[in-house]
Design goal:
With about 230 residues, the chain is α/β, with parallel strands linked by helices. It has a single domain (about 35-55, about 75-225), classed as Rossmann fold (3-Layer(aba) Sandwich), CATH 3.40.50. It contains 7 helices and 10 strands. The radius of gyration is 17 Å and the shape is globular. It starts with a strand and ends with a strand. The chain binds adenosine-5'-diphosphate and magnesium ion (MG). Adenosine-5'-diphosphate binds near residues 43 and 47.
Length: about 230
C-alpha cells in the first residue's frame, strides 16, 4: 500500500536573481512499512523536503499525497490537524516542552485532541524505547539520548501514517546515535511503522532498507537493498 507520493514537487525560495530552487522536481513513492533514508550534502534540500512532506510548508509546484489525501491543498488549520494525527516528526534538537514531564510530552498530541491513550500501546512504546522508568522526569533531567527517545515516543503515539526524522542523531555521540537508529529500526519492525530518516551520515543510512540521495534539490539515486 502506498503511504506517500510526491509528484513534481518544486520549492523556490526568493525571487529574481536571488532565486533558489531548494527542490527541483521530486517524484517519490513510499510504501507502508518502508524504512527509507534520505541522504545528501548540506543544502541539498533534505529539510525542505521533510517540511513539505510534513505539511509544515507548501511546495511552489507539485502535489504530495499522504494515504491518498493531497496535503498541498489543505488550509493551514486542517494541515495542522493532519500533521498532528498522521505525521510524527522527530527533530535534531528534540523539541520537547521543558515544563511537561516525559509522560505528558509523549501524550501531548493526543491531549491536544482531548483523546485518551491506549494504555497498552503507551506501555509498549515506552518499554521498547527504554524510558518506562523516566516518565515523571522533566526533559531537562534527561540525557540527550533519553530526550530523543521521548521525542520518538511522542512521534509514535498517534500511530501516524509516517514518521519523519530530520537528522535525529545529529546532536548525539556515536553510541547514543547508534542506539537511536536501532530504536527507529525496532519501531519500523515491531509496529510496521513507515519511517523516513534524513541524515548526512552514510553509516546511519546504511542501516535502512532504502536510500534516496538528493543533490541540488533533485533525486540522483534511489536504491533498495534486497
Ligand atoms: N527559508 C528559506 N529561505 C531561503 N532559502 C532557503 C530557505 N530554506 C532553505 N533555503 C535554501 O534551500 C536550499 C536547501 O536547504 P535545506 O532544505 O535546508 O537543505 P538541507 O536540509 O539538505 O541542508 C539551500 O540552498 C538553502 O539555503
Ligand atoms: Mg537540513
Amino acid at each position: 500500500m502506498e503511504i506517500l507520493r510526491c509528484e513534481g514537487v518544486r520549492k523556490i525560495y526568493g525571487s529574481g536573481a536571488g532565486q533558489v530552487a531548494a527542490l527541483d522536481g521530486i517524484d517519490l513513492s513510499v510504501e507502508k512499512g518502508e524504512f527509507t533514508a534520505v541522504m545528501g550534502a548540506s543544502g541539498s534540500g533534505k529539510s525542505t523536503l521533510l517540511h513539505i512532506l510534513g505539511s509544515v510548508d507548501r511546495p511552489t509546484e507539485g502535489r504530495v499525497f499522504v494515504e491518498g489525501t493531497d496535503i498541498t491543498l489543505m488550509k493551514p488549520a486542517k494541515a495542522a490537524l493532519f500533521r498532528r494525527r498522521k505525521v510524527g516528526i522527530v527533530y535534531q534538537f528534540y523539541n520537547l516542552v521543558p515544563t511537561l514531564t516525559v509522560r505528558k510530552n509523549i501524550l501531548l498530541p493526543l491531549a491536544l485532541d482531548r483523546r485518551k491513550p491506549n494504555q497498552e500501546f503507551f506501555d509498549e512504546i515506552v518499554k521498547m524505547l527504554g524510558i518506562a522508568d523516566r516518565l515523571d522526569a522533566l526533559p531537562g533531567q534527561l540525557s540527550g539520548g533519553q530526550q530523543q527517545r521521548t521525542a520518538i515516543a511522542r512521534a509514535l503515539i498517534y500511530r501516524p501514517a509516517i514518521v519523519l526524522a530530520d537528522e535525529p542523531t545529529g546532536n548525539l555521540d556515536r553510541k547514543n546515535s547508534e542506539e537511536i537508529v536501532e530504536l527507529l529500526k525496532l519501531s519500523n519492525k515491531n509496529l510496521n511503522q513507515t519511517i523516513l530518516l534524513i541524515t548526512h551520515d552514510e553509516k546511519v543510512a546504511l542501516e535502512t532498507e532504502r536510500v534516496v540521495t538528493l543533490e541540488d534539490g533533485r533525486i540522483i539515486s534511489d536504491r533498495k537493498r534486497g
